[in-house]
Design brief:
Layout: H1 2-27, H2 38-42, E1 80-82, E2 90-92
Antiparallel strand pairs: 1-2
Function: Specific class of high-redox-potential 4Fe-4S ferredoxins. Functions in anaerobic electron transport in most purple and in some other photosynthetic bacteria and in at least one genus (Paracoccus) of halophilic, denitrifying bacteria.
Pfam families: HIPIP
InterPro entries: High_potential_FeS_prot, HIPIP_sf, TAT_signal
């Protein structure tokens, strides 16, 4: 009887440790996209929309930024939020990339 309780305790303890370890990863904020990231570079991502090279990206117009793009899923008041173009990372709300599409 003692060995059964011990086995049950060890299994439950291991399960608890695994749950705590994965919860920590889930709660950690996604990293901010770096402009030198290969995907970011190919899409012309800039953390500050005002720094977009309009000669290289003539599609850019003043006032366009990630926060008012249809792909940005962060809250309006957030400094950064998720974007499906950069899976697992966040983009600056004041940023811009060549995939920009205004919200409807």
């Amino acid at each position: 009887m003692i060995s059964r309780n011990r086995r049950t305790f060890l299994l439950q303890a291991a399960g608890l440790c695994a749950a705590l370890a994965s919860a920590g990863e889930a709660l950690a904020a996604a990293p901010l996209v770096d402009e030198s990231d290969p995907t970011a570079a190919s899409l012309g991502y800039r953390a500050k929309a005002a720094s977009v090279d309009t000669a290289k990206f003539p599609k850019y117009h003043a006032g366009e930024r990630c926060a008012n793009c249809r792909f940005y899923t962060g809250a309006a008041a957030d400094a950064a939020g998720p974007c499906p173009m950069f899976a697992g990372k966040t983009v600056a709300a004041d940023g811009w990339c060549n995939v920009y599409a205004p919200r409807a």
